[in-house]
Amino acid sequence: MNKILVTGATGQMGSTVIQTLLKKMSPQHISVISRQEEKMAGLRSIGVNAFVGSYEDVASLEKAMDGADTVLLISSGDQGNRVQEHQNVVDTAKRCGVQNIAYTSRALRDRTTLQNKLMQDHFDTEDYIMGSGLNYTIFQNGLYMEFLQFVVNKDHLEKGVSLPTGDGKAAFTLRADQAEAMANVLMNEGFENKTYRFTNNETYTFMDVATILTLLSGKAVKYTPVELPVFVQSMKQRGLPDAAIDKMAAFLLDIKNNQEAVVTHDLEDALSRKPVTLLSVKKKHRFL
Fold first, then answer.
1. How many domains is the chain partitioned into structurally?
2. Tens digits of residue pLDDT in 88-101
3. Which of 37, 85, 89, 114 is most enclosed, with most CB atoms within 10 A?
4. Among the ranges given (75-79, 164-168, 186-190, 208-212), the one the predictor scored with the smallest mean pLDDT
5. 220 assigned to some structural domain
6. Strand 100-106, strand 70-73: pairing
């Protein structure tokens, strides 16, 4: 790999990937593209080739890909036509002579039975990349630990955790671990049309989450599984919009159905260390 372009470079995933790349690569061999001009100054100051653009702006993609042999496509948000945006990146890479493409997807047990239909975008993108003729690497990432801050907060230390997740499990994984592992693979391994599943080494139920919250806080935190209509009604009472409730409910039902329970040791192998566990995350990362 002579020159790599990282898309979505100023987000949490992209930023950590770049930090890891910079430890072993010259900044002149790293290009980035992001919508956020205000976050580019620091990268430019150390010699990174920084471009302002978006997945919808093909001209900006072409400019950023000039001279690149590898593109890391960090998945877009789900607010727009995500699959089309991803296809724009893949198609532009082919036109610009890029040889290799990597993509940040999701590690889910069965794509045919998902409740959260937004996840289908990832698999449609994988299929498109695999049919593109480019050398590819797919990073299927486990559910971020950071997801927990959207469903578990300080109020739950007093009231307990009530969610429609039953005894379903998820291999909650620190996003920074996944980003570091991706950078390691990009630097050290060839593009051999391989899929990595970057999940934690263990899974957690929300009973486990409550137990860990009890250990960390010193307060007894109870987990109560509830039916989906009860959860939806509680969200409505809090004033959440229907679209946000539907999205959260689908995520939680997939956890209940063990869609997020995939476990491999790909992450540990790429990191050359154990991934951060849910119990150890409090001291360093502080979102529980």
1. 1
2. 999 999 999 999 99
3. 89
4. 75-79
5. no
6. parallel
Range of the domain at 11: 4-142+174-199+263-276
Q: Which residues pair with 34 in a beta bridge?
A: 52
Q: How far is CA 254 from the centre of its chain?
A: 16
pLDDT tens-digit map of 109-128: 999 999 999 999 999 999 99
Give a yes or no: residue 118 inside a domain. yes
CATH number for the domain that contains residue 63 = 3.40.50.720
With respect to residue 147, please indicate whether it lies within any of the assigned structural domains.
Answer: no
